[in-house]
Amino acid sequence: MSTEIIAIPRTNLHEQVANRLRQMLVEGRIAPGAKLNERELCEVLDVSRTPLREAIKMLAAEGLVELLPNRGAIAVELKKDDIAHTFEVMAALEAMSGELAAQRITDAELAEIRATHFEMMAAYTRRDLSSYYRLNAAIHRAINAAAKNPVLSATYERTNARLQALRFRSNQDEEKWKSAVREHEQMIEALAARDGAAMRAVLTSHLRNKLSVVMEQLHGALPTKKPGGTR
Fold first, then answer.
1. How far is the C-alpha of 181 from the C-alpha of 161, rounded, in Å?
2. In this structure, is residue 226 part of a structural domain?
3. Structural contact between residues 25 and 75, judged by C-beta atoms closer than 8 angstroms
4. Could you say which of 30, 49, 75 is where a domain stops?
5. Domain containing 204: what range?
6. Model pTM?
7. Distance between CA 186 and CA 102 in Å, rounded?
8. Cα(135)–Cα(147) distance, integer angstroms
Protein backbone atom coordinates (compact mmCIF):
# COMPACT_ATOMS: atom_id res chain seq x y z
CA MET A 1 0.00 0.00 0.00
CA SER A 2 1.34 3.44 -0.91
CA THR A 3 2.47 5.65 1.98
CA GLU A 4 1.70 8.85 0.09
CA ILE A 5 -0.33 11.14 2.35
CA ILE A 6 -3.82 11.88 1.01
CA ALA A 7 -5.22 15.22 2.17
CA ILE A 8 -8.87 15.07 3.25
CA PRO A 9 -11.19 18.03 3.92
CA ARG A 10 -12.25 18.32 7.56
CA THR A 11 -16.02 18.57 6.90
CA ASN A 12 -17.95 15.28 7.12
CA LEU A 13 -14.58 13.73 7.84
CA HIS A 14 -15.62 10.12 8.42
CA GLU A 15 -17.59 10.11 5.14
CA GLN A 16 -14.58 11.50 3.28
CA VAL A 17 -12.37 8.86 4.88
CA ALA A 18 -14.89 6.17 3.91
CA ASN A 19 -14.80 7.39 0.30
CA ARG A 20 -11.00 7.18 0.18
CA LEU A 21 -10.91 3.79 1.88
CA ARG A 22 -13.61 2.51 -0.48
CA GLN A 23 -11.51 3.57 -3.46
CA MET A 24 -8.42 1.85 -2.01
CA LEU A 25 -10.39 -1.36 -1.50
CA VAL A 26 -12.02 -1.27 -4.93
CA GLU A 27 -8.74 -0.57 -6.75
CA GLY A 28 -6.87 -3.28 -4.85
CA ARG A 29 -4.56 -0.95 -2.95
CA ILE A 30 -5.82 -2.86 0.07
CA ALA A 31 -5.86 -6.50 -1.01
CA PRO A 32 -8.82 -8.83 -0.37
CA GLY A 33 -8.28 -10.60 2.94
CA ALA A 34 -5.76 -8.00 4.18
CA LYS A 35 -6.03 -6.55 7.67
CA LEU A 36 -6.72 -2.82 7.80
CA ASN A 37 -3.75 -1.39 9.69
CA GLU A 38 -5.20 1.57 11.60
CA ARG A 39 -1.86 3.22 12.37
CA GLU A 40 -0.73 3.06 8.75
CA LEU A 41 -4.08 4.22 7.40
CA CYS A 42 -4.14 7.17 9.82
CA GLU A 43 -0.77 8.24 8.41
CA VAL A 44 -1.75 7.71 4.76
CA LEU A 45 -5.10 9.50 5.12
CA ASP A 46 -3.78 12.11 7.59
CA VAL A 47 -6.60 11.58 10.09
CA SER A 48 -7.01 10.46 13.68
CA ARG A 49 -8.35 7.04 14.67
CA THR A 50 -11.86 8.27 15.53
CA PRO A 51 -12.99 9.20 11.97
CA LEU A 52 -11.07 6.22 10.59
CA ARG A 53 -12.96 3.81 12.84
CA GLU A 54 -16.29 5.45 11.93
CA ALA A 55 -15.41 5.06 8.26
CA ILE A 56 -14.52 1.41 8.76
CA LYS A 57 -17.90 0.83 10.41
CA MET A 58 -19.59 2.39 7.36
CA LEU A 59 -17.69 0.09 5.01
CA ALA A 60 -18.51 -2.91 7.20
CA ALA A 61 -22.21 -2.05 6.85
CA GLU A 62 -21.71 -1.96 3.06
CA GLY A 63 -20.05 -5.38 3.09
CA LEU A 64 -16.63 -4.18 1.95
CA VAL A 65 -14.85 -5.01 5.20
CA GLU A 66 -15.46 -7.52 7.95
CA LEU A 67 -15.11 -6.69 11.64
CA LEU A 68 -13.56 -9.53 13.62
CA PRO A 69 -13.66 -9.74 17.43
CA ASN A 70 -10.27 -8.78 18.92
CA ARG A 71 -8.69 -8.74 15.44
CA GLY A 72 -9.90 -5.50 13.91
CA ALA A 73 -11.12 -5.21 10.33
CA ILE A 74 -10.14 -7.10 7.19
CA ALA A 75 -10.96 -6.45 3.54
CA VAL A 76 -13.69 -8.86 2.46
CA GLU A 77 -12.54 -11.70 0.23
CA LEU A 78 -15.40 -13.50 -1.51
CA LYS A 79 -15.16 -17.20 -2.26
CA LYS A 80 -15.91 -18.49 -5.77
CA ASP A 81 -19.45 -19.61 -4.92
CA ASP A 82 -20.17 -16.29 -3.16
CA ILE A 83 -19.02 -14.42 -6.26
CA ALA A 84 -21.18 -16.50 -8.61
CA HIS A 85 -24.27 -16.19 -6.43
CA THR A 86 -23.83 -12.45 -5.92
CA PHE A 87 -23.33 -11.80 -9.64
CA GLU A 88 -26.49 -13.83 -10.34
CA VAL A 89 -28.49 -11.55 -8.06
CA MET A 90 -26.75 -8.44 -9.41
CA ALA A 91 -27.59 -9.37 -12.99
CA ALA A 92 -31.28 -9.60 -12.07
CA LEU A 93 -31.15 -6.25 -10.24
CA GLU A 94 -29.36 -4.52 -13.13
CA ALA A 95 -31.81 -5.99 -15.64
CA MET A 96 -34.80 -4.80 -13.65
CA SER A 97 -33.23 -1.37 -13.18
CA GLY A 98 -32.60 -1.05 -16.89
CA GLU A 99 -36.09 -2.13 -17.92
CA LEU A 100 -37.82 0.21 -15.46
CA ALA A 101 -35.43 3.07 -16.26
CA ALA A 102 -36.27 2.80 -19.97
CA GLN A 103 -39.93 3.24 -19.05
CA ARG A 104 -39.50 6.01 -16.46
CA ILE A 105 -36.38 8.01 -17.30
CA THR A 106 -36.81 11.74 -17.83
CA ASP A 107 -35.12 13.71 -20.60
CA ALA A 108 -32.96 15.45 -17.99
CA GLU A 109 -31.84 12.14 -16.49
CA LEU A 110 -31.02 10.77 -19.93
CA ALA A 111 -29.00 13.89 -20.76
CA GLU A 112 -27.02 13.51 -17.52
CA ILE A 113 -26.28 9.84 -18.24
CA ARG A 114 -25.17 10.77 -21.78
CA ALA A 115 -22.84 13.44 -20.38
CA THR A 116 -21.33 10.98 -17.90
CA HIS A 117 -20.94 8.45 -20.71
CA PHE A 118 -18.94 10.97 -22.77
CA GLU A 119 -16.69 11.63 -19.76
CA MET A 120 -16.27 7.88 -19.30
CA MET A 121 -15.30 7.45 -22.93
CA ALA A 122 -12.67 10.18 -22.55
CA ALA A 123 -11.24 8.30 -19.56
CA TYR A 124 -11.27 5.10 -21.63
CA THR A 125 -9.37 6.84 -24.43
CA ARG A 126 -6.74 7.94 -21.88
CA ARG A 127 -6.74 4.40 -20.40
CA ASP A 128 -7.43 6.06 -17.04
CA LEU A 129 -8.98 3.04 -15.34
CA SER A 130 -9.60 4.77 -12.00
CA SER A 131 -11.61 7.62 -13.55
CA TYR A 132 -13.28 5.25 -16.00
CA TYR A 133 -14.53 3.01 -13.21
CA ARG A 134 -15.79 5.94 -11.12
CA LEU A 135 -17.80 7.26 -14.08
CA ASN A 136 -18.93 3.78 -15.10
CA ALA A 137 -20.28 3.12 -11.62
CA ALA A 138 -22.03 6.52 -11.68
CA ILE A 139 -23.83 5.52 -14.89
CA HIS A 140 -25.04 2.24 -13.39
CA ARG A 141 -26.25 4.08 -10.26
CA ALA A 142 -28.01 6.69 -12.42
CA ILE A 143 -29.80 3.98 -14.38
CA ASN A 144 -30.87 2.40 -11.11
CA ALA A 145 -32.07 5.78 -9.81
CA ALA A 146 -34.03 6.37 -13.03
CA ALA A 147 -36.01 3.20 -12.28
CA LYS A 148 -37.56 5.18 -9.39
CA ASN A 149 -38.00 2.21 -7.09
CA PRO A 150 -36.50 2.84 -3.63
CA VAL A 151 -36.67 -0.82 -2.57
CA LEU A 152 -34.81 -1.84 -5.71
CA SER A 153 -32.23 0.91 -5.14
CA ALA A 154 -31.55 -0.13 -1.54
CA THR A 155 -31.11 -3.77 -2.55
CA TYR A 156 -28.94 -2.76 -5.50
CA GLU A 157 -26.57 -0.69 -3.33
CA ARG A 158 -26.11 -3.43 -0.74
CA THR A 159 -25.44 -6.10 -3.36
CA ASN A 160 -23.23 -4.01 -5.60
CA ALA A 161 -20.96 -2.99 -2.71
CA ARG A 162 -19.72 -6.57 -2.45
CA LEU A 163 -18.73 -6.66 -6.13
CA GLN A 164 -17.06 -3.31 -6.70
CA ALA A 165 -13.47 -4.54 -6.48
CA LEU A 166 -14.22 -7.46 -8.81
CA ARG A 167 -16.00 -5.21 -11.32
CA PHE A 168 -13.00 -2.87 -11.28
CA ARG A 169 -10.57 -5.73 -11.94
CA SER A 170 -12.68 -7.07 -14.81
CA ASN A 171 -11.54 -4.10 -16.93
CA GLN A 172 -7.85 -4.91 -16.54
CA ASP A 173 -7.82 -7.00 -19.71
CA GLU A 174 -7.81 -4.82 -22.82
CA GLU A 175 -10.19 -6.88 -24.97
CA LYS A 176 -12.67 -7.42 -22.15
CA TRP A 177 -12.60 -3.71 -21.37
CA LYS A 178 -13.31 -2.86 -25.00
CA SER A 179 -16.27 -5.24 -24.99
CA ALA A 180 -17.67 -3.62 -21.82
CA VAL A 181 -17.45 -0.20 -23.48
CA ARG A 182 -19.47 -1.46 -26.46
CA GLU A 183 -22.12 -2.73 -24.09
CA HIS A 184 -22.32 0.70 -22.45
CA GLU A 185 -22.90 2.27 -25.86
CA GLN A 186 -25.78 -0.19 -26.38
CA MET A 187 -27.23 0.84 -23.00
CA ILE A 188 -27.31 4.50 -24.06
CA GLU A 189 -29.00 3.59 -27.34
CA ALA A 190 -31.63 1.45 -25.60
CA LEU A 191 -32.34 4.13 -22.99
CA ALA A 192 -32.72 6.79 -25.68
CA ALA A 193 -35.16 4.51 -27.53
CA ARG A 194 -37.04 3.83 -24.26
CA ASP A 195 -36.62 0.13 -25.11
CA GLY A 196 -37.06 -1.79 -21.86
CA ALA A 197 -36.51 -5.22 -23.40
CA ALA A 198 -33.23 -4.12 -24.97
CA MET A 199 -32.04 -2.63 -21.67
CA ARG A 200 -32.88 -5.84 -19.82
CA ALA A 201 -31.01 -7.89 -22.41
CA VAL A 202 -27.85 -5.77 -22.57
CA LEU A 203 -27.54 -5.42 -18.79
CA THR A 204 -28.07 -9.14 -18.25
CA SER A 205 -25.37 -9.86 -20.82
CA HIS A 206 -23.10 -7.18 -19.34
CA LEU A 207 -23.20 -8.77 -15.88
CA ARG A 208 -22.79 -12.30 -17.20
CA ASN A 209 -19.72 -11.17 -19.11
CA LYS A 210 -18.34 -9.53 -15.97
CA LEU A 211 -18.80 -12.77 -14.06
CA SER A 212 -17.10 -14.73 -16.84
CA VAL A 213 -14.07 -12.43 -16.76
CA VAL A 214 -13.84 -12.55 -12.97
CA MET A 215 -13.98 -16.34 -12.94
CA GLU A 216 -11.31 -16.56 -15.64
CA GLN A 217 -9.11 -14.25 -13.60
CA LEU A 218 -9.64 -16.36 -10.47
CA HIS A 219 -8.59 -19.46 -12.39
CA GLY A 220 -5.56 -17.68 -13.83
CA ALA A 221 -6.84 -17.96 -17.38
CA LEU A 222 -6.50 -14.22 -17.91
CA PRO A 223 -3.38 -12.23 -17.01
CA THR A 224 -4.05 -9.32 -14.68
CA LYS A 225 -2.49 -6.62 -16.78
CA LYS A 226 -2.82 -2.91 -17.13
CA PRO A 227 -4.82 -1.67 -20.13
CA GLY A 228 -2.52 -0.95 -23.02
CA GLY A 229 -0.70 -4.25 -22.71
CA THR A 230 1.69 -3.67 -19.79
CA ARG A 231 1.80 -6.29 -17.07
1. 21
2. no
3. yes
4. 75
5. 80-218
6. 0.77
7. 13
8. 19
